[in-house]
Amino acid sequence: VIERLETPDLAAAWCADRRAAVQTLGFVPTMGALHEGHLGLVRRAADENERVCVSVFVNPLQFNDPRDFERYPRDFTADADLLAANGCDMVFTGTLAEFFAGSEGDMERVARRDPGPAAASLEGEHRPGHFEGVATIVGRLFEVVEPDRAYFGLKDYQQSLVVTDVARAMAHAMNREIEVIACPTAREASGLARSSRNELLSAAQRTEAAAIHRALLAARDAWHAESVRDAAVLAARMRAVLEPTSLVVEYAELRDPEAWTAVQPAGPMERAVALVAARAGEVRLIDNVRLDGAARV
Length: 297
Ligand code: PAF
Description:
Blueprint: E1 3-5, H1 8-20, E2 25-30, H2 36-48, E3 51-56, H3 66-71, H4 76-84, E4 90-92, H5 96-99, H6 123-126, H7 130-145, E5 149-153, H8 157-174, E6 179-183, H9 203-225, H10 231-242, E7 248-255, E8 273-280, E9 283-290
Parallel strand pairs: 1-4, 2-3, 2-5, 3-4, 5-6
Antiparallel strand pairs: 7-8, 8-9
Helix pairs in contact: 1-7, 7-8, 9-10
The structure holds pantoate.
């Protein structure tokens, strides 16, 4: 049976009890509208920890577009049922006012956390304030839960770098190491990365959106089959797949995953992750593929 807790204070007490019982705690932060991608993280957390908790909070601080926030799908009951069936012991939610005491639910009154260098460019540039919002809520969630391990999907590649930095920065203050585990992206049969926003796509848009993954694979093929190492050439391969479609490309770029830079590196790359953001109608989608085949970010 799953515990459903309605406030961060109740969740913090539940988590403190688990720590007192010396049980390892795995944590999966989410914004709900759960899909197979999230459930894979929950199952992995259940394999690797004695107890698992999940947060469901559509965090207004990380939406640079208010319409995106309003349209974001929400169904707490369905989410809790899926979590119960996938090894989660506790799910919690809360309001902005409950998460940030003193804010009285006013976003302007929430002190933001600096997301650090991984927030530079790409998502950070196209979604101003997004990573401040992510770092702020994730830092707060880490304070509430104090997990041993926290699980994130690699679809949000830059986010996984940002939250790793948040965990590192908090380790000293909390006297607790939180291991951030970035997990492979779950995909639909077409290759489209699973995302809560996929629910908002029409059937035709869903078909078009699969070109994002094909573009990433074109870069990966060029890396492996032709030994292309020049970022500009790899990016051009992605654009060649995306441009004939109706998708509106925001970026299709390369980065060194171990040395994040604001701009795409010039000259030959040793390691590379290819990242794309594109819009299908009003729905904004992101995806990425590591080209050099290393297991982790
Ligand atoms: O990836 C998400 O769903 C969100 O950015 C997160 C990590 C739950 C923070 O709100």
